Amino acid sequence: MNPLSTVGLAIAVFVGSLVGTKFFLGLLTRRAIFDRPNERSSHSTPVPTGGGVVVCAAVFSAWALIGLGGVGAAAPVLIVCGLAAGLAIISWIDDLSGLNQAIRLIAQIAAIGISLAALPAPGPFFGGVFPVSLDYAAAGLIWLWFTNLYNFMDGIDGLAGVETVTVGVGIAATAGIAGISNSIPAFGLTIAAAAAGFLWWNWCPAKVFLGDVGSVPLGFLVGWLLLSLATYGEWAAALILPLYFLTDASLTLVHRAIRGEQVWQAHHEHFYQRAEDRGLRHDRIVGLIFIANLLLVVLAIVAASGQTVPAIIGAVCTVVLLLVFLAKDDPEV
Fold it and tell me: pLDDT confidence of 40, banded at 50, 70, 90?
């Protein structure tokens, strides 16, 4: 797609997500589909959940149009969207009535395995450092972790939406700077637009939550875009853009594993949750993460411009400073 068409489609996706969420919010309220507070919640009153249905529908529609409008690009994107839709259905069932963790994990492994088998990459995921089989295995494990951490990190108003907006825009900008001429920039911009439309309703205080039906497919799709970026040689940018989400979720998991806790069990120990526990408002926490993510977008562009080492150093420093601030005054840090 040409840049003008991409921007026009992104605007349409934004409007569709914004308006569609409003109407779907009414349906969720009438059907009493709420996320009710518990000891691990960050909200004190029931909030409608499942707004991710609209976000995913907007993304799937836009990506299908982009794929069908490209040269030879329809099959890969339709496969990815179809698998993401399957994950959305399973996650929606989980939102409504609960599912065994093993079922959810098996579905995610199957979706990732099918994607890697059906979508031959233009290059290695890790720059040729590993043999082909190990390269694919490592990519699959990282993709699986990223899909789940997106769900884990969707814990306060606006956080997953802001992450999707900044990473999506960052993917589009990085791909453009790197001269990647396929549909990756359009995919990045439209997924960011869908998340931005939802953010209007999810900003603090949230009127609706994504639910697993939104966070799991979004993690799957954003993970696919980041891995696609890496296959074009932009592994540094693919690492830098989601570095806050990756670091917060991974350090928290390692910390819980060392203490012998069940790492997949819901908890309230992420860095952003520690900041909330000491009294910071959701909008301030997410605002700080948004600023850090903007810096990561700039650093990803720097990496794509050829300054890989300074960009990675800058990204690590940015995330470390953010985590230190979020966790300050916490006796465990």
Answer: low
Q: Which amino acid is at 149?
A: L
pLDDT digits (tens, 9 = 90+) for 78-133: 999 999 999 999 999 999 998 999 999 999 999 999 999 888 788 899 888 899 99
Determine the residue type at 287: G
Give the tokens for residue 222: 């954003």
For 142, the domain range is 3-235
Yes or no: say if 151 and 215 are a contact pair by the CB < 8 Å rule. yes
Separation between Cα atoms, residue 251 and residue 318, nearest integer Å: 16
- The answer, yes or no, to whether residue 232 has pLDDT greater than 70, is yes
Q: What is the pLDDT of residues 258-314, one digit of tens each?
A: 888 877 777 788 999 999 988 999 999 999 999 999 999 999 999 999 999 999 999
CA atoms within 13 A on the CB side of 51: 35
The answer for residues whose C-beta is within 8 angstroms of residue 273's C-beta and 6 or more apart is 42, 155, 156
8 CB neighbour count, 10 Å cutoff: 12
Q: How many structural domains are present in the chain?
A: 1
* Of 62, 61, 60, 54, nearest in space to 26 by CA: 54
Contact 318, 296 (CB under 8 A): yes
Asked if pLDDT for residue 331 goes beyond 50, the answer is: no
Model's pTM, two decimal places? 0.95
Residue 329 belongs to a domain: no
Q: Exposure string (b/e) for 198-214, b if CB count within 10 Å is 16 or more?
A: bbebbbeebbbbbbbbb
| Residue in the structure block whose two tokens are 């909200």 | 43
Query: Is 298 contained in some domain?
Result: no
CA distance 3 to 22: 29
From residue 252, alpha-carbon distances to 102, 108, 326 in Å are 21, 21, 13
